[in-house]
Amino acid sequence: MTSSIIIGTDATGAPVPMDMEELLATRLLVQGNSGSGKSHLLRRMLEESARLVQQVVIDPEGDFVSLADAFGHIVIDGAAHNEREIERLASKVRTRRASIVLALDGLELEAQMRCAALFLNGLFDAPREHWYPALVVVDEAQMFAPAAAGEVTDDVRRLSLAAMTNLMCRGRKRGLAGVIATQRLAKLAKNVAAEASNFLMGRTFLDIDMARAADLLGMERRQAEQIRDLERGRFLALGPAICRRPVSVKIGAVQTGTRTASHGLLPLPSAPAGELDDLLTLEPEAREPAFSFAPEPIDASARLDLPEADTGSPAEGETPDTSDMPPAPDKDAVIGAVLADMLAEPDCTYRPIPVLFQDFGVRCRMQRVLLHGLDMAGFRRRFALAVAGDGDSGDPQWRAALRLAERVPDDLLAPFLLIARSALAGLPCPGDEELARAYGTRSPGRIRRLLEYLEKNGLIVVHTSFGGQRSVALPELGVSTAPAAA
Q1: What is the pTM of this model?
Q2: Secondary structure class of 340 (helix, strand, coil)
Q3: Alpha carbon distance 192, 158 (integer Å)
Q4: Nearest residue to 203 (alpha-carbon basis) of 180, 184, 223, 175
């Protein structure tokens, strides 16, 4: 079986091969401004070598996920996993020798750098028996190995730069062949770029980038001007895996496409201007009616026809007639209705418990329940149940959650029960805003400390992915919420 692939043709139309075995030992650097065909080149190389070698693609823009349909690559969504899971996935990739695309387009820059670094470190730290040959392609490498400090924190930059340096400097002994692509050589760390022995240089316009490209290709500075004149999809190639002297290569066709928008011109809509005006007119948003508990005004002109009071008392031995007396109210039903009315008021949970308790007593008396039977502590727990949405008392799982809640401090009871109810129903994890309202705070930091306290005491386990999706599990109940944005 041959180890060479054809990446394109030279100026005479002759095919230009790339020796993959040699590439595994000598690594590759691809440079080209946006629109030069850099991603097209990587796609051509990946498609042609897909049946020859395991491939790992670090894809910050989600351009290469289409390889999964045609060549069976497994797409790993970086935003859906946390740090520990990313490291475990990297170990499995080396063990199973699976070709994968690590899609990072759902993450911010700092999260992309941390996720890619942890994944590369997981590949690098695999046991010796799993050091199989693999092509590791990193697109937009200047993001992961920046030449200077940028918008991200120093810790993340050092972590990412160290992972890229390990890949390019020490990865060969572990079977990892780095292929890095960058828009600008000046923005790529020099110790990372210097480890490549093969080069494919595309169009660039800045003098500093042309000068570095010419140095890498062994060209004189006056010859570097031709780099500026390269057409889209044409690269200057040099290296032991391609050719011993610089040669101009026109990259060949590819089978798969990207998800990027078309760069061609499209006709503008031909609808009349009036229709476009109607299209851009926004309808007013529907608003829920505000709850009001003010008593209805009494019509002073209305005539009250009241029966005359009977001041007589029943005769001796006569039973009083109670047929016209209203029935006694159901105390539990009244308490539930009163709590529901209180929670319907905006900012109810932010009021102090003593104030709420006093308001609760007044409302109960207005409903002819003079003795509701709750003290301050009992009211607090009943109010927390109402905030969380009291579950089915006949459900054994909900009863188990209530028993577990006995270990929770009273002030944390409402957010804990809210999480428990969501987990039992398999609903998305409540967000910080919802938990903060249940707790009665407007501070997101306090909610994070609340979750840390519950987790430290073994009541919950919090799982947060790189994409900010959080799920909370209750180990003692064996349930977990669905992931949702925090």
Answers
A1: 0.69
A2: helix
A3: 13
A4: 184
Which residues is 177 bridged to in the sheet?
135
Residues 385, 391: Cα–Cα separation, whole Å: 8
Q: CA–CA separation, 484 vs 464, rounded Å?
A: 9
Nearest to 71 by CA among 43, 38, 91: 43
Cα-trace Rg, the chain: 35
- The tokens describing 111, both together, are 């999260």
Q: Which two tokens stand for residue 207?
A: 């003098």
Across the strands, what pairs with 464? 470
Indicate the fold that domain 4-251 takes in CATH.
Rossmann fold (3.40.50)
Helix (H) or strand (E) holding 472, with range, is: strand 469-474
> Which pLDDT belongs to residue 301?
45
What is the rounded CA–CA span in Å between residue 65 and residue 73? 8
What are the average pLDDT values for consecutive 10-residue runs of the chain, which has 486 residues?
86 92 92 87 94 94 91 92 91 94 91 94 93 94 88 89 93 93 88 89 77 72 71 89 89 84 67 63 56 45 44 53 58 83 85 86 82 81 85 79 88 90 90 88 83 90 87 92 86
CATH class of this structure's domain 383-485: mainly alpha
Local structure of residue 292 (DSSP, 8 states):
-
* Secondary structure letter of residue 254 according to DSSP: -
- Closest alpha carbon to 411 in 456, 353, 361, 457: 353
Parallel, antiparallel, or unpaired for β 28-31 and 100-103?
A: unpaired
In contact, 388 and 421? CB cutoff 8 Å: yes
User: Tokens in use for 96?
Assistant: 């199973």
Q: What are the φ/ψ torsions at residue 125 (nearest 5 degrees)? A: -90, 10
